[in-house]
Amino acid sequence: MPKSHKIVYAIYIVVWIIMAINPKYPSDWLLENILVFIFFPFVVWMDSKHNYTLLSIIFLLIFASLHSLGSHYTYAEMEHFNVITEFFGFERNHFDRLVHFLFGFLFFRILFEMITPGISTVKTAFIYTFTMIVSISALYEVLEWLAAVTVHPELGVAFLGTQGDVWDAQQDTLVATMGALLHMPFYKSYRKLLNRD
Prior knowledge:
Elements: H1 3-20, H2 26-32, H3 34-50, H4 54-73, H5 82-88, H6 95-115, H7 122-151, H8 156-160, H9 168-181, H10 191-194
Helix pairs in contact: 1-4, 2-4, 4-6, 6-7, 6-9, 7-9
């Protein structure tokens, strides 16, 4: 694994530790980080085997760091986003919507790199990656609801972050889809990822 990747992972670990100190709702923080405990070691292991591009790892760091911030305050009550909420006159805190959008945008590249081995055309890999982003986003909404009602029903509102929006899950999936679609103009640049060492 390149040294630059190790530095990126180290930065994320530092961010994660800082955001793990005195979270607003400790039980909610634990629930939010279950996937981190599972997928962070998996990504590091996969990277050591397949050597993903530095840009993909940086994108992953940005998303993971924002998730750590959201889990520290809860997505619905991320106070550092209140300035934007008040400036635009939003009725709700849209930090969670931003992170779902960035999931679609920031996760696209590393997913593309993960699935390209064995796929011969960039078109097939591109469509498959896009489908995965949409599917993972929709599945996450279901798992999020299931985890809330099963593990800590009393934390449902804080964990789900719906803020009174009955269409929250659908809109979260939509913005993730929009984030993934932003890669369309860069379609040709993904060709070189198919044959990288």
